Amino acid sequence: MSVNDQCRKTGIYIHIPFCVRKCNYCAFLSFDAESSPRREYTEALIREIQLRGEALRQRDTEQGRTTTVDTVYIGGGTPSVLDISQMRDIVHAVRSSFRIDEDAEITLEANPGTLGIRDGVTLAKLQAYRYMGINRLSMGVQSMDNDRLHFMGRIHTAENVAREMKLIRQKGFDNVNLDLMFSIPGESTEDALDDLRKILDLRPEHISCYSLQLEEGTPFYEMAERGEFEEVSDEEDRATYHRICAMLRDAGYEHYEISNFARVTDSEVSPYRSRHNSRYWDMSDYIGLGLGASGFVDGVRYRNIDDIEEYIRVFGGGPEGGTIPILEEHVNTEFDTISEAVFTGLRRREGVRYHDLGLTEAEFWERFSDARQEAEEYSGRGLLIIDREGLRLTEEGIDISNGIMSLFV
Known about the structure:
Helices cover about 40% and strands about 20% of the residues. The protein is built from 16 helices and 17 strands. The longest helix has 26 residues, at about 40-65. The two termini are about 30 Å apart.
């Protein structure tokens, strides 16, 4: 057994399914915070954390290894709507149940407008987060235009964002992501670029940029079905995306994944890349905790119970025999894992290296012989780079990335 086999790393994702108000575009598993059982959910979540920690320690003992956690991501929903005491209890449970690396990246999603109305309240909440060991914040800004924010159903204003970033810096947070959404109905490319300029003025270490997707079951989807607004065309969406990419490069950010940009430093690789999200793209293990959360552990994908009443009943009461109930489970074959690694790996700037898959170039194309001709056609059109090391998308190839990546599924 190698040293790497004995000392493994994993990440943890924790789902907090509560929001002040659900946004018009949101299809995530979330509920209104005021009318939801936050206390009961927190107690059930803590019990799940303890159970999964016990299960991991038992598995480590059986396999003669030690697993440590180097990334924790608390997402939602809007985790910052929880009381400080509830968040403190959750983080304490994680630290008590798992081995957390001293330099672990611990991210909290915090929407503007949920950290406190008064400066003193916001500073106290931020100080509490720092004390818990949270060292990265991810803020769902989406736009810096108040009319667009209102249209999307956001609860904050552009002024809230600027105020809270100032307080975040005052409390010493030096790793902050801000989300930007573009291709909002009625928004032009210049509007989106103006939003980006205002976000850049705040100098976040990381920026995530996404085009609006109309998801079935959301108010926006229903509005579009009724013809109440016109969707942004694919041509304008792609033109806006490339202008955003160019502006971010000029501002000193590396485009390390299709939708993600990290501020460039003297390091060869920016230290501000999201270490946790990178786990999803390089097929690293992560443990999913909370309602509907997904995990990937030892080659097994699973998804948690997604009915909140059932989740609270099962975990709040303590599962019989200490078993951990799940909704879905899939044991990956070797080909599943390699195929998924190619699909997700092509999202990264570095793309996919044959060696990282444990394959030679010849072995890779033997496995994906059915895809080779079409892949080479994409290469000939300047959309995909194929060389002796591996393959990666060009910036133009990103526009049809799903079509290219699907060749390897």
